[in-house]
Amino acid sequence: MKRSTALLLVILLAVGLVLSGCGKPKTTQITIATGGTAGTYYPLGGGMAQVFNNKVANVNATAQSTGASVENMRLIGKKEVELSFVQNDIAHYAFNGQEAFKEKIGNIAAIATLYPEIVQIVVPADSPAQTVADLKGLKVSVGAAGSGTEANARQILAAAGLTYNDIEEQFLSFAESADQFKDKLVDAIFITSGVPNAAVQDMSTSRPVRILPIADDIIAKLTADYPFFSKFEIPANSYKDQAAPVVTVAVQAILVAEKDLDADLVYKLTKAIYENKEELVTVNAKAKNINLEKPLTGVTIPVHPGAEKYYKEKGVK
User: Fold this and answer.
1) pTM of model > 0.85
2) What residues does 139 pair with on adjacent strands?
3) How far apart are alpha carbons 287 and 21 in whole angstroms?
4) What's the first-to-final CA gap in the chain, in angstroms?
5) Measured on CA atoms in the order 237, 241, 243, 248, is the torsion positive or negative?
6) How far is CA 93 from CA 23, 88, 175, 282, in A?
7) What is the pLDDT of residue 23?
8) pLDDT in tens, 246-286
9) How far is the C-alpha of 153 from the C-alpha of 164, rounded, in Å?
């Protein structure tokens, strides 16, 4: 009798433990693919992870340093991360199987536009080049081979009636471009990044620079052919001796999710971003550009249903 009573107590205790475990919410692990530790993606991604951990129940988010946009799309494609920072043009190429992507990555969905990545065509201040067409015959760094910058360079040159046959193209990283510019080995440089860009600031300390404007007719053609571009004005005094604003184009840094990520969870994450924007601004000033009035500028891939629910709730078309 005593043995059976003890056995009954053990069984009841085990059942109680199981039931108490069933009532405990499961923690969702989220990895955010960002970029290099010296860039903008990584610290801003870390700030988002902190917001998610503090403001969204049962979430454990971490920011992962990566090779940025192209690698991030491949990580999402393999379902190795849940969220990713990416340029909107790279997301467009990934979704459609273009440029660096031989196969379509169809499991991505947009959450929000974060901030603009501006195309800057840098020339020496005393260069005779005044327009994109004037780059004909010059040595031009078009960015690292296969990069988003390089794709932007080809698209802008084409809109101006030029191809690589019309220039002496150089496939250089930003740092390599800056070094060759200072040594007078290149005549112009394409850079797609935030403003101000550290490489351009570095160049301007040893050699005065100027940013070429992009004419309205070229912008009209670009935005018609590639809807991920938008017109952008670089503010005056963004760089040394830049007295006037410069009209150019921009792509956008956006946040995307693996499309099968739970819609209710993505709704809560989207809400947390907008309701804690000021906290993100303290991490990186570019978060000031996160704008609920224009939350999907330049997005050409599907929007995640969870984000869409939040925008509809807020009356955003």
Assistant:
1) no
2) 168
3) 39
4) 71
5) negative
6) 44, 9, 25, 32
7) 57
8) 999 999 999 999 999 999 999 999 999 999 999 999 999 99
9) 10
Cα 251 to its chain centre, rounded Å, is 9
Kindly tell me the sign of the dihedral angle through the C-alpha atoms of 179, 182, 187, 189: positive
CA distances from 22 to 18, 58, 192, 299 (A): 6, 15, 50, 40
Q: Is the distance from CB of 183 to CB of 154 less than 8 angstroms?
A: no
Do strands 246-258 and 230-234 pair parallel, antiparallel, or not at all (unpaired)? antiparallel
DSSP symbols for 262-314: -HHHHHHHHHHHHHTHHHHHHH-GGGGG--TTSTTTT--SPBPHHHHHHHHHT
- Distances in whole angstroms, Cα of residue 39 to Cα of each of 67, 117, 141, 196, 276: 10, 12, 21, 13, 22
Confidence band of 37 (pLDDT split at 50, 70, 90) = confident
Say which residues have a Cβ less than 8 Å from residue 258's Cβ, sequence separation at least 6: 76, 79, 81, 82, 83, 107, 108, 109
The per-residue pLDDT for range 171-217, each reduced to its tens digit, is: 998 889 999 999 999 999 999 988 888 889 989 988 999 999 999 99
DSSP string, 101-144: -SS----EEEEEEEEEEEEEEEEETT-S--SGGGGTTSEEE--S
Angle (CA) 246-248-249 rounded to 5° is 150
Beta bridge mates, 304: none
